[in-house]
Amino acid sequence: MPAFAEPAIDPPLADSYRALLRSDERAGIAAAPATGSVAVLERDLPMIDLERLRSGDARERKACADAMAAAASEWGFFQVINHGVGRQLLEEMRREQARLFRLPFDTKEKAGLLNGSYRWGNPTATSLRHLSWSEAFHVPLATISREDCDYGKLSSLREVMQEVADAMSCVADTVAGALAEELGHAAGGGESTFPAGCDGTTCFLRLNRYPACPFAPDTFGLVPHTDSDFLTILCQDQVGGLQLMKDARWVAVKPHPDALIVNVGDLFQAWSNNRYKSVEHKVVANYKAERFSVAYFLCPSYDSPVGTCSEPSPYRPFTFGEYRRKVQDDVKRTGKKIGLPNFLKHSPVHGLSS
């Protein structure tokens, strides 16, 4: 009897890679230097123990918040332990995530799983420099528990995703509140809650898979970028591959089994008047091993003004919706994100285009 091939689970990343490689060669675009040819230091991010924020000692709480603020200013990234997201829950999420991504590619792409939140590669890529060797489900929190959100046969995925989203939401709120208070924002509920306009219906959970890549060792799993939110909470596995820009060079982030990674997004940099830094980062695909991660994005509603911690601010007033639309327009027009420079009161971007 003839043998039937198993349905492919990977998106056609190899086809995209080869097509873009030919396009780059025709255009005379040189390949980026291989990661292996440039020394990339592996560094431990600043480590913050969130248990200190729950201390009865005011000096301990202040020291913890000070350490977070220093890391957000110097690195734009730090890691947190004693964060309250259980290891067992994260391991369960990893198992469910693996089951989800093991589905045939056609099922993931066409079946409307998780309300059509699946994406892969980069549909706007015109060069290998724009290709992301990855696939993901980018899920609005508002849809996770809705009855019309299609989970296919993965009936247990919904509950685990909701638990992870709720737990990471608590971490994001705690960290964002402490960082805002360091800049003079009053703590408390009601109108003083920070960030304004963020709740369980406005944030996102993103499930990522980076398949093993048989091509060049410098292939992007995720192209260099900054995050367009207030804060990102990331749980990564032990494969590694996350790199961030520090002192004008790429630094590899050493995985830590008990830590979550926190990074400042563009909106927090704008709100803080550039005191906290939204730092460029990327993922480098692994030659032999696939990589999984889960990211929680703390985002406001699209009509929420981003605001500022104090005046004068270098940025003109804008909403999250305006920011997202401008990013999408720039990527479509230029192939890359411009981001915050568009919203400076005295924007060099505007000066170049006028």
TrEMBL record:
Its cofactor is L-ascorbate. Transmembrane segments: none annotated. It is an enzyme of class 1 (oxidoreductase). The keyword Oxidoreductase applies. GO terms for biological process: gibberellic acid homeostasis; gibberellin catabolic process. One of its GO terms (molecular function) is metal ion binding. Its EC number is 1.14.11.13. Keywords: Dioxygenase, Iron, Metal-binding, Oxidoreductase. GO terms for cellular component: cytoplasm; nucleus. InterPro entries: DIOX_N, IPNS-like_FE2OG_OXY, IPNS-like_sf, Iron_ascorbate_oxido_reductase, Oxoglu/Fe-dep_dioxygenase_dom. Residues 199-300 form the Fe2OG dioxygenase domain. Signal peptide: none annotated. PROSITE patterns: FE2OG_OXY (PS51471). The keyword Oxidoreductase applies. It catalyses: gibberellin A1 + 2-oxoglutarate + O2 = gibberellin A8 + succinate + CO2. Pfam families: 2OG-FeII_Oxy, DIOX_N. Belongs to the iron/ascorbate-dependent oxidoreductase family. GA2OX subfamily. PANTHER family: 2-OXOGLUTARATE (2OG) AND FE(II)-DEPENDENT OXYGENASE SUPERFAMILY PROTEIN-RELATED. This is gibberellin 2beta-dioxygenase. It comes from Hordeum vulgare subsp. vulgare. The lineage of its organism: Eukaryota, Viridiplantae, Streptophyta, Embryophyta, Tracheophyta. The gene is LOC123430544.
